[in-house]
Amino acid sequence: MTDSFSTRLILIRHGQTEYNLKGLSQGLIDIPLNETGERQADGLVSFLSPFRVSKIYSSPSSRAISTAEPLSKALSLEIAIESDLAEMDQGDYDGFTAEDMRKKIPQEFLDAWRSDKPDDVRMPNGETLNDVRERMVSICDSLAIRHRDSTVAIFSHNLSIKAFLCYGLGVALKNFRRLSISNGSVSIIDISPGERYLVNSINDIPELEIE
Q1: Which of 45, 108, 130, 135 is the most exposed place for a label (fewest CB within 10 A)?
Q2: Domain membership flag for residue 17
Q3: Residue 204 belongs to a domain
Q4: What is the domain count for the chain?
């Protein structure tokens, strides 16, 4: 028996919500998809059809699950929920607008978050980016082993996907700011034994279905 395998992970950010539209942080707040988000979810079905997805995983958030549902129905695959795929817990800052951030968040925190070492800056009553990266790497490595030589669709969130991509690219977490992960976008990583990661694409955006 050989340990040689390669698992393709397709990372999909959930579709648009009203919070996304208004520029509010969401974190663990459970916000549903808006009309555009629903169309983005529908558009993923044809975009992902060539990839032969054999398993679907989602974060527990309804916006992620709802984004996965059209693909689940099209492929007759159940959606498995994994809590480690959740968005970064932004604690007391969940739901903040950009204006809230300027007015209510201490300057000391903002300076640390914007520094070249944001890894261990903890959101009050929430997580650090390093926390997010560690759980994302753990669950994605586990799924790669669990579904050897298969293609897995993973429905997750902005900061969680960015933290994992930084790991896959072998760059510091500060580089999350240089990654654009749009609502309804697709990023693809192949994982092989020995922590070998091949990042195939980042932020591919399917066309919306024409109404």
Answers
A1: 108
A2: no
A3: no
A4: 1
